[in-house]
Amino acid sequence: MRTKVIGYYNSKFGELWNKSLADLIDEAIAGVLQSVRLARADIDAVFFGNMLGGILENSLFNSALIAQIMETTVPVYRLEAACASGGLAFQTATNYLKSNKNKTVLVLGAEKMTDVSVERATEALTAASAAEEQIAGLTFPGLYAMMAQVYLHQYRYDEEHLAYISVKNHYHGSLNEKAQFRKTITVDKVLASPYVAYPLKILSSSAISDGAAALILTNDPVRVKSSRSAVDVLSSEVATDCLAIKNRDSLTELYATQVAAEKAFCEAKIKRNRIDVAEVHDCFSIAEILAMEDIGFWKRGEGGKKAKEMSTQLGTNQRLVVNTSGGLKAAGHPVGATGVKQIGELFLQLTKQAKSRLVKNAHFALAHNVGGAGGMAVVSILAV
């Protein structure tokens, strides 16, 4: 039987100073189990995405913490792939279910980032970059800023083209009750915000966030039959590229995304034009443009033009709507939870539970989750 997603829950994303990492994990587990009317004893394995627990909280062995919270002895696997930790947890869970019949598993992603200073959180995130980049003082805004500079110069775009990505995703985020930022913004406001690293502005960048998200996956026909809603996992593929961006052939392409996307579409046996809704990794505005080109939704070099046309915004009568959750930019980016949230948003869309941000008549959906500056990419395709 094909693997299905039958349940989803996420906490609010944002500055959740009154909640610990354990609190967020507990909330997500309880919420998703309640949504599918299952007990903790019904779970056969847990796949947990988390990047920074060992660095920011000196709490690396969170697998045992989850077992403690769930009062279980089932296997709990912790996956770490920088900002792709949640996506890798999902992809690993799908592989587990391919090898084990009639099983039901929990996929969980969580991160606690705002209890430390911005400087400390930024330093922790650089652990996902190459040593020579760290020595040079490059943070991820700096790395993506270099990609943006090359892209804008190569294709003769400017900062305004980048700004439209943020405007679109903030509009979508305003419709998401769990989003960190629920206010719409304008292009002028984006352009007036301070630089983080030229040409990227504060409003071109995702924020430091807390949050947790959880999914229930199963290949058990009994569980599927009793579920209120179910979505097929057509494919989930991962590719890994070199760590240092100086070793790459191009700064305007993420090769890991291209490989993972090609594998995912081949496994799913559908064409790109069948995708109705997508969640792509927009840690910075340039990242969404590169993703749309690397996945094959847009032709190489046309991303700035397409962004300015707002061609993937809800309500524009376009074929493909992107980042209905608000993306990382507006929904928030608790790094371990992001990849799980992306799948969850698509589950809500395909099961018609996305309320005011619903993409009508959506049948196929794609999630794209990136680790670091493109060192890993996970692409998953879902369908109803």
TrEMBL record:
Recorded GO MF terms: acyltransferase activity, transferring groups other than amino-acyl groups
Entries under Pfam families matching the protein: Thiolase_C_1, Thiolase_N
Domain Thiolase C-terminal: 240-383
Ranges for domain Thiolase N-terminal: 13-219
NCBIfam families: PRK06064.1 (NF004720)
Record's protein name: Acetyl-CoA acetyltransferase
Species the sequence originates in: Candidatus Roizmanbacteria bacterium RIFCSPHIGHO2_12_FULL_41_11
Upper taxonomic lineage: Bacteria, Candidatus Roizmaniibacteriota
